[in-house]
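Q: What would this chain look like folded?
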Amino acid sequence: MTESANSCQAQGLRARKREATRSAITKAARILTAQKGLNGFTIEQLCEEVGVSRRTFFNYFPSKEDAIIGHLLDEFPAGAIADFLAGGSETGVERGPHGLSVTLLQDLYTLTCAMVEELNFTREHFHELLAAMKKEPALMMKVMGGAHEREREFTDLIIQREELPPDDPVAGIAAALFGSCSHRTSQVFFSEENTVPYEHLLRDNLLAAQQLFTFSHLTFEGTP
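A: My prediction, written as C-alpha cells:
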C-alpha cells in the first residue's frame, strides 16, 4: 500500500472515530436528559458515561443543550452547497418568466436529501430526542430556533444562487414553502408505521405542492 493510501486510510479512520464519539455523546445526553432532566446530571457525569474527558466534550459541543440536539444544528455539506450554487450560474441555464432558474426546486430537493444522508438521523435518534424534549420542553425552543435558522440559510442560499436582491420576497417564500414540505416529510418519515424512504416522501410532497400552485386559480381584485 502506498504512503498516500495509508494516509487516506488513517484520515478515514480518524473521521469515523470522531463521528462515533460525537454520536455517543449525543445519545448519552439524550438518554440522561429523558431520565433525569437537564439539571439532573453534570457534564462530568455525561463524560464518565461515555468514557471521554471534559476537554473532549467541549471539542464537540459548547453545552449540554447542543449535545442533546446534535447533528440538527450542523452546517450543510460543503460539496452539496457548491453543487446547488453552481446550478444557478451554469452557462445556458433555463430561466422562468421571473428570472428564476427552472431547476431551483429540483436542486433544493437534491441539497436537502444530501443533508439528510449526511445527518444519518434514524428513527431511534428521533425517539431519543423526543423523549429528552418531553422531559425538558424548553429544548423544543432550541430545536425550533434551529429550524428557523435553517430556513434563513436556505433563503440566503437561494438569494446567492439566483442573484436576487437581499430583500427579495421570492427567496423567503421559496424557503418557507420548501421548509413546510420538509417538515411534513419528517413527520411522516419518523412515524412508527412508515417504511418509505425520506427522499420519496419529500418528492411526493413537493409534487403535490407543485400541482396545487399550478392548477389552482388565484386572483385578487386590483391585481393583474
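The chain is about 70% helix and 0% strand.
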